[in-house]
Amino acid sequence: MCDRPNDPSIPNEERLWRRIRPDWVFRPPGQAPRPTSAAFKDNLSGEVSVFIASLTTTDTLLPQERATDSLAEITAGLARSAGYKVVRDPEGGLVPNDPSHVVLCPPRGVGKKRLHKAAVTLAEGATWVVPRS
Amino acid sequence: MIAAHTLPQPAWWTEPPPSQWVEVIPLFDATERPWLLSAANDVLKLATLSDNWDGEGSPRVQPSTLAKAVELLCKLATAVEPMSHVSPVPGGGLQLEWFLPDRYLEIEVFPDGSVEYLTKRGAAQSSEGTLPPEDSERVRELVAFLSHR
């Protein structure tokens, strides 16, 4: 579990992008598709991998082999309001020393489980950057 | 809808067998709840995911997790509202979801077989908890949550 502190140098207004697999998109008939909360969970580490929008591009995050993935956006402030710490993680990005890579760490004392409400908050607050039909 | 069976008697058993049922097994009844078969099928499609299905090292969804999810669907089969969506969860496990106009139910099956749920009504009212397999009362509450507007 993430023991690193929240990084205050990432402002609440910072836009964070999350890659969304097709399995994580609910498509209600006649309505706009929406990401499910599963997209904002991780049962291995509890950390959710996102990228600072201003430090990356859609093409970088959605290369050809990710052609069916969508891209959703949340803000650092939304993640913090849901209880997550927002932490820079350049070594965990797509390439070594990736300054755009950030992880959302669950609140201290909260295990990998019991994050349902926080994940739902992120899913409901997410907007599409690159939606796929 | 349901069937019962008794444990087989060992060869040395001489007393009359017990008269009471020892286990109740819910069976599929696709004519009563047509969504159930479709939902179970959607769950079983996750069996096609391989290791690293998300490109971030997630393990495949274990057969025991799929079986647990289908078992849960059977228990919830009397609910009126059909399941909306099933997703694999990064890191292992899966979740079942019901998106309804005024309420939301999420049930997550973890790789260790444990189950948790979240109910949400409107924007603010939500509750979450564990769903132990023997907790039939909680299952009834979730069925009621799904069925009562």
The spatial strand order of the largest sheet of chain A comes to: 6-7-4-1-5-8
Termini separation of chain B: 25 Å
Give the structural class of chain A: alpha+beta
SSE string of chain B, helices as H and strands as E: EEHHEEEEEH
Structural class of chain B: alpha+beta
For the largest beta-sheet of chain A, the strand count, sense and barrel status come to: 6 strands, antiparallel
Can you put this structure into words, describing what you see?
The complex is a heterodimer of chains A (133) and B (149). Chain A has 133 residues and is an alpha+beta fold. Chain A has a six-stranded antiparallel β-sheet. A two-stranded antiparallel sheet of chain A has the order 2-3. Chain B has three helices and seven strands. In chain B, 29% of the residues are buried. Chain B has 149 residues and is of the alpha+beta class. Chains A and B meet through α3 of A and β3, β4, β5 and β6 of B.
In short:
Chain A is an alpha+beta fold.
Can you lay out the helices and strands and say which pair or pack?
The complex is a heterodimer of chains A (133) and B (149).
Chain A lengths: L14 E6 L4 E2 L7 E2 L12 E5 L5 H4 L8 E6 H6 L3 E4 L12 E5 L10 H10 L1 E4 L3
Antiparallel strand pairs in A: 1-4, 1-5, 2-3, 4-7, 5-8, 6-7
Chain B lengths: L1 E4 L17 E4 L7 H12 L17 H13 L9 E4 L5 E6 L3 E7 L5 E7 L3 E6 L5 H12 L2
Antiparallel strand pairs in B: 1-2, 3-4, 4-5, 5-6, 6-7
Which key features would you list for this structure?
heterodimer; A: 133 residues; alpha+beta; two-stranded antiparallel ribbon; 3 helices; B: 149 residues; 5-stranded antiparallel sheet; 7 strands; globular
